Amino acid sequence: MSTFVIGDIHGGDRALGQCLTRSGFDPDSDRLICLGDVCDGWPETRQVIERLLGLKNLIMILGNHDFMTLDWVRTGVRHPGWMSQGGSNTIASYDGKMPEAHVQLLESASSYLIEKNRLFVHAGILPDKPMDEQGDDIFLWDRTLFRIALDQKLSGTDRPITSFDEIYIGHSPVHNYGWLEPVRSGEVWMMDTGAGWTGKLSMMNIETKEAFTSDPVHTLYPPGSGRAG
């Protein structure tokens, strides 16, 4: 059994299919850790979650877009900020109502996973604060760790930031800085390579560090299909 980690999918089921195929992922034996934000952006959130439900060894980490989608499911409220950031495509993919199995998958998502001193979290953590003193406002939204890691990478330095051996984060797209594969800085792996915009979806074997990417996701859908236009 191999363990893979995947960045923010954002409704891009065609990209997800490419990554699973190109990585040789075995849905019966391999394990996939999804860093969150499976929802919102491209028009196939329903297909993404349906495909994920077919994987026998899936670990879901909650992303901020998944959190906002669950808020719509629970309250029926369509917040304008969420709608403009891909929520409208999520609603359309479900024709206004999410099946219970899909809701349960999102509700089963964890705020983070710690395993063998590796941390998997959607947005990041505050490096100088104990984990039990942090909450979802940090795990889902905060970019402090990303900014520290990015500054190190851009300055050419490479030193540990936390006491974890490895940290895997999504949320903050690195394609904005010219990277279309996962990027490491210190112990931090930045996995969001811009699949929700004009970048690619990235998936990586956490033992070998071999990365597998989709085509640029905006080329897989008709113009105007997602937030990228």
From TrEMBL:
<dbReference type="InterPro" id="IPR029052">
    <property type="entry name" value="Metallo-depent_PP-like"/>
</dbReference>
<dbReference type="InterPro" id="IPR050126">
    <property type="entry name" value="Ap4A_hydrolase"/>
</dbReference>
<dbReference type="Pfam" id="PF00149">
    <property type="entry name" value="Metallophos"/>
</dbReference>
<dbReference type="GO" id="GO:0008803">
    <property type="term" value="F:bis(5'-nucleosyl)-tetraphosphatase (symmetrical) activity"/>
</dbReference>
<dbReference type="GO" id="GO:0005737">
    <property type="term" value="C:cytoplasm"/>
</dbReference>
<dbReference type="InterPro" id="IPR004843">
    <property type="entry name" value="Calcineurin-like_PHP"/>
</dbReference>
<feature type="domain" description="Calcineurin-like phosphoesterase">
    <location>
        <begin position="2"/>
        <end position="125"/>
    </location>
</feature>
<protein>
    <submittedName>
        <fullName>Metallophosphoesterase</fullName>
    </submittedName>
</protein>
<dbReference type="GO" id="GO:0110154">
    <property type="term" value="P:RNA decapping"/>
</dbReference>
<dbReference type="GO" id="GO:0016791">
    <property type="term" value="F:phosphatase activity"/>
</dbReference>
